[in-house]
Amino acid sequence: MAILTPDKTTTLGGVTVKEYLLTKHNPNRIDMPTAQLTGKVLGVTIHNTDRIKTAAGTTPAEQYTRATVNGNMKTVRVHYYVDSTCAWQNLPLSLSGWHAADGNGNGNRRTIAIECIMNGSGDAADKRAEENAARLAATLLKQHGLGINHLYTHTHWLNVRDGRNGTVDQLNTMHNSYKMCPAYILPHWAEFKKKVQSYLNAGTSTISAPSTKQLYRVRKSWAGTKSQLGAYSSLENAKKACKVGYSVFDSNGKAVYTNSRSGKFAKGQAVHIGSNVPLFANETTAAPAARLTAGTYYIYDGVPCKLGRYRITTTAANCGRTPVGKYVTGYVSWDNFK
What we know:
Helix 3 crosses helix 6 (189-202). The protein has a 7-stranded mixed beta sheet with strand order 1-2-5-4-6-3-7. It has a 4-stranded antiparallel beta sheet with strand order 9-8-10-11, covered by helices on one side. A 4-stranded antiparallel beta sheet has the order 12-15-16-17, with no helix packed on it. It has helices spanning 60-70, 106-110, 124-143, 154-161, 168-173, 189-202, 235-241, 324-327; strands at residues 8-12, 15-19, 43-50, 80-82, 87-89, 111-118, 151-153, 216-219, 230-232, 247-249, 255-258, 270-273, 277-279, 290-292, 295-299, 309-313, 330-333. The chain has 338 residues and is of the alpha+beta class. Helix content is 22%, strand content 22%. The longest helix is centred in the middle third of the chain and has 20 residues, at 124-143. The chain folds into 3 domains: 8-202, Lysozyme-like (3-Layer(aba) Sandwich); 216-258, no CATH class; 270-336.
């Protein structure tokens, strides 16, 4: 499929926006949202998606739009894809999107979705993309008469979906085992929020020069960019975010801290787990096999598994018994233990 030509190009908050609405261009008859958003906008939801290589004459935002038209984005439908150069609008603001993984919840049905395209390296392109997302978010909030407390993360709606309570910002940044998104912005969410607030207060301004300050990245390995949990200007904050099996790397790729804790939970230890917590079939799978009901469970053998998971069972008497398949209920991330 050839590079797309936008129906029109406008500017929002200093960001070049190329409009190519799926409601007008749907040659492959991909499924589309039908719920109306007009008069119901609750806020703006920020996402991150990975930067991709593009051919000459186009940008990642156009290519993600093209991938959506082709059906390659499966059921994801967002209002805007934003990169370091421009934004592409996929949905009219009169129509809800599919982006928040909360079904008919307020995330999908009542917020405008911005996918900010980055790779988490903190390079100049990342900074420009984030800047464009902040400008666009501020403009959209202003257009709908909304303040900064109507700026949401994808993770906010996951936490609401899972029955968690808290302030807007607590839910925006509270850990969710299913997904932490926007993955590259969330570690410095407060800074991003301040940037959006500054545009709400005073309108847009020129993009500031890329910062050269030290960033500490939390990853399983320096080469494993997709495993990155965040990038921090503070080493202490990076250490706090560093899970078991992860390391903190400086800007030169040197590991300055490794979290190799083990034995945090002992065999037979009782742990309380809240409702709707993901239960995994093994230590590495990404998709939960089931969701647990709230209650007390027991650490099967006290051996830390990959991704910070432990095997659990339903009674203390089951701990350590074999065959494993009969007595182990499944794998749960330790940060769900209370």
